[in-house]
Amino acid sequence: LLHGPVHDIRVDRLRLEREASHDPLELRGHVRLDGEALTLTARLGPEAEGILPLAADIAGDGLRLTLEGSWPRHSGTPGWALAAEAELNAAAAMRLATRFGHDLPLAGPLNAKARLAPGSPWPSVSDLTVRLGPTDAARLLPGLRLSRAELRAASFDDPAQVSAQGTRNGADLGLTASLP
Predict the structure, then answer these.
(1) What is the 3-state secondary structure (H, E, C) of 35-67?
(2) Exposed/middle/buried for 12, CB within 10 Å: 0-12, 13-18, 19+?
(3) What residue ranges in the chain does DSSP mark as E strands?
(4) In terms of CB atoms within 10 Å, which of 40, 88, 123, 177 comes out highest?
């Protein structure tokens, strides 16, 4: 993949369908972003008071992004909300970091969950959880192996809780911390 913004978008297949006007609008497709193959599925339900229920899934080699929530029919309508979850295996994390010009000191299976809502200038983030699975962290400290690490925060304005377990040269290690 190339560094920086996406340079090449290819639509291999895209299908948009709705049986009747009261049925959900469904999207299914296969696209490539700079050669990265992705499968898209989305469902936009019938409108209720200007809000449409939304469910979307984007999956690729070792990665998945899932969105569920509500989206306004008109851009000026307030009240959208999304629950987002991303999962990446170690290879996908390294590939995406390289794609955006970064070098990860460690990579393991990663899971991130959050709730997104209107904010200014950026959407507000709440109920944030980031989990890192088994990871060789020897680049950070020789002999260090994490079995798990987790960060939790109610929002970016609230304290974050961090915990990790692992071993270093066979000795068990554990960490818990609260970050202001």
Answers:
(1) CEEEEEEEEECCCECCEEEEEEEEEECCEEEEE
(2) exposed
(3) 9-17, 25-33, 36-44, 51-60, 63-72, 81-88, 110-117, 124-132, 135-136, 144-155, 160-168, 171-179
(4) 88
Model-level pTM? 0.84
- Alpha-carbon gap, residue 172 to 5, rounded angstroms: 42
- Give me 140's structure tokens: 């950070």
Strand bridging mode 36-44 / 51-60: antiparallel
Cis peptide before 159 (omega within 30 of 0): no
What is the phi-psi region of residue 169: left when phi exceeds 0, alpha when psi lies from -120 to 50, beta otherwise? left
The pair of structure tokens assigned to 76 is: 């000026």
Find out whether 114 and 127 touch, Cβ atoms under 8 Å. yes
Here the tokens at position 169 are 């040269």
Helix, strand or coil for residue 134? coil
Per-residue pLDDT of the chain (180 residues; tens, 9 = 90+): 445 577 889 999 999 999 888 889 999 999 999 889 999 999 999 888 778 899 999 999 999 999 999 988 776 666 789 999 999 999 998 888 888 788 887 778 999 999 999 888 888 999 999 999 999 999 889 999 999 999 999 998 899 999 999 999 999 999 999 998
